[in-house]
């Protein structure tokens, strides 16, 4: 079943996700760090560390949002990072950040569809995604296009929410995600649906081995899953 942010609208998932992120873009960064207690910054750093031995020079950041993962990837000293996202509102916030940090000559944020990437085959040394594949309208199609634009031998690193399995963290996490997070998110973002959609989309997402099976089915090899912080999120790695 496809999880939608706005169940009373007839728009498809892609259009709804774009609308949602446009709507919350100005408060997104604050909410992201506040609701995760800043742990999301640590998760991104851990994901980027896995790419260090590969020394990628040209990187694509899919579903870049306001560009936090692209900024974290600057630790790799790349020549170029291109970030794509379907939300112009998020990109506008991101471009201001890049200019302020004087990273706009290296990080280029572009409007684009993650499932129909406007890049030639075999272009990027690495493709990275943080908390974005969960929002794809067609997960397999998005992963296939990711594989297509990677160079042979290139690496994909995907950071995504998952669900803790052990007591008592599972119970605490479920309570926070179901009851606390939507209320805080709604109050600050002023969007009635965005932070209800978040736990619903995480619950529906094929995590762990289920995700790796889809990952492998589109061509990725040597794939693995690395859980973080009791399984709240996971890093998925694959090679072309």
UniProtKB/TrEMBL annotation:
Q: Which EC number(s) are documented for this chain?
A: 2.1.1.163
**Chain residues that bind S-adenosyl-L-methionine:** 66, 85, 113-114, 130
Q: Which UniProt keywords apply?
A: Menaquinone biosynthesis, Methyltransferase, S-adenosyl-L-methionine, Transferase
Tell me the GO molecular function terms: 2-methoxy-6-polyprenyl-1,4-benzoquinol methyltransferase activity; demethylmenaquinone methyltransferase activity
- SUPFAM superfamilies documented for this protein: S-adenosyl-L-methionine-dependent methyltransferases
Catalytic activity of the protein: a 2-demethylmenaquinol + S-adenosyl-L-methionine = a menaquinol + S-adenosyl-L-homocysteine + H(+)
Pathway annotation: Quinol/quinone metabolism; menaquinone biosynthesis; menaquinol from 1,4-dihydroxy-2-naphthoate: step 2/2
Q: Report the record's Gene Ontology biological process terms.
A: methylation
Fetch the Pfam families from UniProt: Ubie_methyltran (PF01209)
Q: Which InterPro entries match?
A: SAM-dependent_MTases_sf, UbiE/COQ5_MeTrFase, UbiE/COQ5_MeTrFase_CS
Q: Which Gene3D superfamilies match?
A: Vaccinia Virus protein VP39
Give the highest taxon in the source lineage: Bacteria
Q: Which NCBIfam families match?
A: MenG_MenH_UbiE, PRK00216.1-5
**HAMAP family named among the record's database cross-references:** MenG_UbiE_methyltr
What is the similarity comment for this entry? Answer: Belongs to the class I-like SAM-binding methyltransferase superfamily. MenG/UbiE family.
Q: What does this protein do?
A: Methyltransferase required for the conversion of demethylmenaquinol (DMKH2) to menaquinol (MKH2).
Protein name (record): Demethylmenaquinone methyltransferase
The organism is Splendidivirga corallicola
